[in-house]
Amino acid sequence: MPTAFSRILFSLLLLLPMAAQAGDANDFAAANPAKQASLLQQWSANPDSARLALLEALQQGRVAADSSKQAFIEHDGSYRAVEGDAAPTGQTRKLRLNNRMRGLISTAMASHQLLSDDPALRLAAAQELQKRAKPAQLALLEASVAREADDAVRDALTLALANLQLVDSDPTVRLAAVRLLGETGEPLARTRLETLLDPDVESDPSVRTAAETSLAQVKRKLLVGELLGQAFSGLSLGSILLLAALGLAITFGLLGVINMAHGEMLMLGAYSTYMVQVLFQRFAPEALALYPLVALPVAFFVTAAIGMALERTVIRHLYGRPLETLLATWGISLILIQLVRVMFGAQNVEVANPYWLSGGIQVLPNLVLPYNRIVIIGFALFVVLLTWLLLNKTRLGLNVRAVTQNRNMAACCGVPTGRVDMLAFGLGSGIAGLGGVALSQIGNVGPDLGQSYIIDSFLVVVLGGVGQLAGSVMAAFGLGIANKILEPQIGAVLGKILILALIILFIQKRPQGLFALKGRVID
Amino acid sequence: MQRRNLIKALTLSASIAAMGMTWTVQAAETIKVGILHSLSGTMAISETSLKDMALMTIDEINAKGGVNGKQLEAVVVDPASNWPLFAEKGRQLLTQDKVDVVFGCWTSVSRKSVLPVFEELNGLLFYPVQYEGEEMSPNVFYTGAAPNQQAIPAVEYLMSEDGGAAKRYFLLGTDYVYPRTTNKILRSFLVSKGVAEKDIEEVYTPFGHSDYQTIVANIKKFSAGGKTAVISTVNGDSNVPFYKELANQGIEATDIPVVAFSVGEEELRGIDTKPLVGQLAAWNYFQSVENPVNTEFVNKWKAYAKAKNLPGADKAVTNDPMEATYVGINMWAQAVEKAGSTDVDKVRDALAGQTFAAPSGYTLTMDKTNHHLHKPVMIGEVQEDGQFEVVWQTEGPLRAQPWSPYIEGNDKKPDYAVKSN
User: Fold this and answer.
1) CA distance B205 to chain A (A)
2) Residue range(s) defining the domain that contains residue A452
3) Is the CB of B247 inside 8 Å of chain A's CB atoms?
4) What is the CATH number of the domain that holds A480?
């Protein structure tokens, strides 16, 4: 019966589309919040394509009311009446929305989009309704399923309908709905099915058994998503550790300089990104989305130049004196932090993700992979590859390896050791700068940025084995994944402590780290 | 030769400057005011602006002729976000610089660290930040919110129809005394409202935590069990990666609202606020509050930031602890006028019942006995420009309950200030 009734209602509403609209907008503008909510609920049960523009404007916060409670929609800064060309009288005020209202608007939007001609839009609407459909929309959904020509959309709609049919009075309808829900991997389906296991809620035993089977199916699907999610977050944390530590793997790992100012190179890389962003905002706002790409070379050269300057002025005089190097580089790090604080202020600066680094891709119903993390994993691997090529396939790399393995012999063979030291330190600092660009996209950019990464960086390099790139890569991903396996079980605080304890034990047992250089060259 | 000349010149100018300084101190008798905020280290982000706000308020009072005919003189020290150093610097202010009052501290740890010093030397401290309660010292005046002036109304809002009628609560905090105590109070409050233990989840992260992937995944999983709200006592700049992760994993404020107790306008300055729109914060003041006192206050602050060339002055904002600092200094000045002296015991008596028309739009009263302000509570939604829009507020100021009734044994605590040892 409701189906037939709503069909009639539909055709009636479709006959007079324009009449509904202006009245609706004004009703909404004049209503109090409770009335507005009930209006939205009515609309989502009885969609009318003429109302779409109003809902869209509401969703984007463009609807305003003037002093006589007439509704106006903002277009590029000027207010236009919903219908006709009346001008607002008196002061206009934007309609205030809270989260509850925004939720209701999205539901209403979704049921209006079901009337759209575009199957993709209908599909998105159907998926939205799987989450949000209210019992009042039962008739609407039934009608839409009957009408729908596109298979994918119909499947999605049937699922949305099944959620509502779980409380149907007819046990066969409930049974079918429960079976259908077993096919999804929706986290919400799990809770819905769990409530059906209770004999007080569900009186029919056959539906209860079906719910149990469906629940097991859903749980299996959810588990897959969870495990994949954990693996991904482990990889992501690992790639961040790797980017933070890679520069140090060169300055400390290869050159043997205990570089406490390494964290500040990351920080300077992040601030270079900020500066590039500011320049783009000022001079090329239309190309703003590309700023991280431009920031990469800028950050590399800025930090490499600072690194080389430091090497020439301070660190050069301290080779072979680890304690003095430690103190001197620590002092440099304090100077750099304070310098940045004086220049940019103690506050964090705002580095915004461009649109292609915001949001994520929905792989499974309970698994979203954020774009910025995917890009950073790829970028980390790219930087490792680049470093490897540079060290193993170029003349500079050959020289660096020669000097770090046996300085005197290399000098005898005519390698300009001083220059190689400077270039290698510059390379390490530059790579730290690249890491800074990546870190700026996921965390804070402030003067203290480096401080939070310096310990992790040393852990990675020491654990991986000093002097080994492969060791650092393994150690970074290993630490990342171990951290993410422990965190859900015992919490972030204990997890971190346990990891540190494990590393101490490991280093006791194997001081040379995961990978050790073999041969006589080690002294 | 040149270098020697330079050194000579420097020494000469330095000694002239030093002479100049001693001369000013001797010439005019001043009232010394200590300012104890971290200007370096992790808390510099939040506390630097409080130091500047205190200096602005002191300048303003001086421009009006000072207090009791004397000019105020600020003594600024930097405890560098180092909790034991707070006690040391506090002692230095009271014994060496002989200040009559101190405005300072942000974290509860720093306040707990200076408290014994102020009680021992009978100093006077004004603390401007919301905190967990459980303290009422005769030597401290608390101008920030107690839990019943921030946390509890915020949760009541989340329970209401407009706040989304949340059934499950995810309590997320940084691991230290303020979040732990607040969450203890909230848990017991939620249980008293009929929320089951299984619908409350409590999670803590270390200071400066930056990887929120697992926590956000857990929030999503938790929210499948019913309408969920997150109550965040995450402090400092960890908030940025937290909100970024929420947005990137597709969680919107309409699905899972997050209400934060430590995120204000100043913290949002360093954040790209687009992904945060619609998220909530509970405070006693927002910069966006519309009333003449606040308009004047905000304009004064912006002009001051520009005149003193503070970093980021073109985007200067005010926030709740800054308002609390402003109110605190003004109230103290009024009390000194009333007492006719800066003697701590006399000023303390004069402070009871003091009122001040605050930028929040209300006339705030210092309670007669409990050393806390009566404050209005506001819930604001983050807007795209980093400001908040008030979506709910109490009808008027509430009296503070520093001893929360939701913690066992507090009903026996006296409702007046006693020394903690």
Assistant:
1) 5
2) 227-509
3) yes
4) 1.10.3470
